[in-house]
Amino acid sequence: MVDAPLQSGQLRWRCRRGMKELDILLERYVQRRWHEAPCDEQAAFLGLLEAQDPLIYAYCLGATPVPDHLAALIERITAYGGRER
C-alpha cells in the first residue's frame, strides 16, 4: 500500500484536474476502489496521474488506445464514472 497521507487528502487533491468530468471519474475511483486496490494497481493509478488531462480523458472515453499496463485500471475508473452507487 501507499503511504497513509497520500491515501487521504493528498490523493484526492491530486485527482483534482482542470476538467470537471475527469475530476468526477478519478475521485469516484479513489472513493470506491483505492483502499482495496492491490499495490500494483495503486502504482499504476499514481503513474496515470502524472499524465496530461486530455490524454487521461481520451483513455477514459476510448478515443485513444490504452497501453496494456493501464487497460484494467482505466476499465475500473470508467466503471465508477457517472453513476451514483
Molecular structure report:
The chain has one domain: DNA polymerase, domain 1 (Orthogonal Bundle). Helix content is 66%, strand content 0%. It is built from five helices and no strands. α2 crosses α5. It is globular and about 30 Å long.
Quaternary status: single chain
User: Unreliable runs, pLDDT <50, ≥5 residues?
Assistant: none
Order of H and E elements: HHHHH
Tell me which CATH architecture applies here. Answer: Orthogonal Bundle
Query: What's the rounded overall pLDDT mean?
Result: 88
- CATH fold field value: DNA polymerase, domain 1
Based on secondary structure, the structural category is mainly alpha
Count of DSSP E strands? 0
Concise overview:
The chain is an all-alpha fold and 85 residues long. The chain contains five helices and no strands. The protein starts with a helix and ends in a 6-residue tail after the last helix.
Characteristic key phrases:
single chain; mainly alpha; DNA polymerase, domain 1
Architecture blueprint of SSEs:
Elements: H1 4-15, H2 20-32, H3 39-48, H4 53-61, H5 68-79
